[in-house]
Structure to design on (130 residues):
């Protein structure tokens, strides 16, 4: 399996654990204490804040932003994106939630709560569509 590929100018700050075979696109911003599994594809202009955990074989489209302070009170909540999840371009993910295994988040969705395994969610706010 190949070493992770980081396309410049990616911004990694603090410490991360990035799995083999993972690709991170240009202008990605990845915070401290982030764990990213193997064979993930994180495209350009993605923002991943501290304490986020991403499983294996996850796709994150360009321009996705993940929050980690859902109540804007300084309380950091890590987000968990389970293996096989696919997140479409421009989606916004609230901090402290779980995106289920093999779930799909539609392009431009605003996800404000947990998404169960295997479900497809889209819209603003995102709701189950499949």
């Amino acid at each position: 399996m190949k070493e992770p590929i980081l396309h410049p100018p990616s911004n990694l700050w603090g410490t991360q654990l990035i799995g083999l075979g993972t690709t991170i696109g240009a202008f990605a911003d990845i915070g401290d204490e982030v764990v990213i599994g193997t064979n993930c594809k994180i495209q350009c202009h993605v923002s991943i804040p501290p304490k986020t955990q991403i499983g294996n074989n996850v796709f994150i489209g360009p321009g996705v932003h993940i929050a980690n302070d859902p109540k804007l009170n300084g309380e950091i909540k890590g987000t968990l994106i389970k293996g096989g999840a696919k997140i479409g371009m421009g989606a916004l993910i609230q901090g402290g939630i779980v995106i289920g295994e093999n779930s799909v988040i539609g392009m431009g969705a605003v996800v404000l709560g947990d998404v169960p395994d295997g479900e497809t969610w889209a819209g603003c706010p995102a709701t189950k569509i499949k």
User: Anything to note?
Assistant: The mean pLDDT is 94.
